[in-house]
Amino acid sequence: MKRYREAAAPSYLRGSFLSFRFLEKNGQKKQAEKTRMQLFELTRALVDIESTTNREKNVGDYLFAHLSALTARSGGQIQRMSAEQNRDNLFAFWGQPVVTLSTHMDTVPPYFGSSEDEQFIFGRGACDAKGIIAAMVSAAEKLLAGGTRNFGLLFVVGEERNSAGAKVAAVQPRGSRFLINGEPTENQLALGSKGALRYEITTRGKLAHSAYPELGHSAIHTLLDVLQEIRQITLPEDPLLGRSTLNIGTIIGGRAPNVVADHAEAEVMFRTVGDPTALRQAVAAATAGRAEAREVLHTPAIRLRKFEGLPTTVVAFTTDIPTFNGAWGEPFLIGPGSIHVAHTAEERIAKKELCDAVEIYTRMTAQLLATGRSAA
Fold first, then answer.
1. Between 226 and 3, where is the model more confident?
2. Which of 45, 101, 147, 211 matches a 20 to 30 Å C-alpha distance to 306?
3. CATH of domain 26-192+302-375
4. What digits encode the pLDDT tens for the residues 222-273?
5. Candidate list 41, 141, 159, 237, residue with the active-site label
6. What distances in angstroms separate CA 277 from CA 283, 284, 289, one per listed residue?
7. Is 159 labeled as catalytic in the residue annotation?
8. How many Å apart are CA 101 and CA 38, to the nearest integer?
9. Residue 201: beta bridge partners?
10. What angle do CA 40, 41, 43 make, to 5 degrees?
11. Which of residues 22 and 345 earns the better pLDDT score?
């Protein structure tokens, strides 16, 4: 008997089992392509809403409307969680959440809108972390279509600056036992993440005409001396996380080129790998008697466990995970995109990684739900 290829079922086989399977598979392909396009469209829609830190309201309102429609048709609930005026976390959930997928809505400046080609979606937040939001929403839709419940989506404000949203969420837990936190790790599971220690360094001087500098005292000169000493600090190392790093991120001061500066300040950040005591002592010694060193942020380094079947990595950046402090369950850190293009003018995310992330988040949630049920 002649064998017919399913992909080209002829008209006289319509109504046969073979034709049914052909139509079924063709329908599945069309649905898969539709889902892909919705994933890319949501990513671009989010990127096109400017939401640098402290300006998250518009993207939060857009997501609230999007998730309200999803929860309405799938028997879920959505809540706003106020972090500050006009800055709300969003929590959508179905049943009693055992697993929560979470990432942040804010981005770093400067804002620029989206574009795309066959391989990538470009724009501020494409990988950090609006593409991740879209992948988590798509994973939720896939889980719901398969009848899965007892999970949630938590999208927070302020991660890029001071974890304001995570601080609020940490004191308002919802009983979740596992937290899948999304950051750009190229879809590899992070086994560790460096911490952060940030200072504002301020110096003060005396105004004078620049033609007679001996009549004044330059706050900028003092600041430069202090910063040079801070740059000489011995940076700790760790076998897993590697070496601590230092970045002098901003310097401002002075009034005019012909005026001796009476004020100057800088923001510096250490990426820590362990106990920050030695770094704190070194900063205090470098600034003693010359500058004010105000610690404005400390987020500890963390270590995380493996998840079966996922490749692993270690990351040098800091996340909301330490700020959640276990309130939303045992954390895992994974997401599509590369941190090497995050915060840059070339920020982008690979479409393939976005699609892969949907499958990863779906599988992780299902497996963790099974783990939660078996341990209950």
1. 226
2. 147
3. 3.40.630.10
4. 999 999 999 999 999 999 999 999 999 999 999 999 999 999 999 999 999 9
5. 159
6. 10, 11, 20
7. yes
8. 19
9. 266, 293
10. 65
11. 345
Quick: pLDDT tens for 123-176.
999 999 999 999 999 999 999 999 999 999 999 999 999 899 999 999 999 999
CATH 3.30.70.360 intervals, the chain: 195-299
Region for 67 from its dihedrals, namely left if φ exceeds 0, alpha if ψ lies in -120 to 50, beta otherwise = alpha
CA distance to 69, 325, 328, 372, 373, per residue, from 376 (Å): 32, 22, 17, 6, 5
Instruction: Answer for the pair 293, 287: CB distance below 8 angstroms, yes or no.
Output: yes
For residue 203, what are the β-bridge partners? 264
**Residue written as tokens 């959505």?**
78
pLDDT of residue 186: 98
Range 195-299 classified under CATH 3.40.50.300: no
Kindly provide the b/e burial profile for residues 297-312, where b requires at least 16 CB atoms within 10 angstroms of the residue's own CB: ebbbbbebeebeeeee
**What pTM does this model have?**
0.85
Candidates 277, 53, 325; CA nearest to 162 is: 53
- pLDDT score recorded for residue 75: 97
- What are the structure tokens assigned to 16, written together? 């046969």
> Across the beta sheet with 115-116, what order do the strands follow?
115-116, 120-122, 348-350
Which residue type occupies 252?
I
**The pair of three-digit structure tokens given for residue 146, joined into one six-digit string:** 């398969």
Q: Which two tokens stand for residue 46?
A: 């989010």
Strand 99-104 versus strand 151-156 pairing type:
parallel
C-alpha closest to that of 260 among 203, 213, 202, 204: 213
pLDDT digits (tens, 9 = 90+) for 269-297: 999 999 999 999 999 999 999 999 999 99
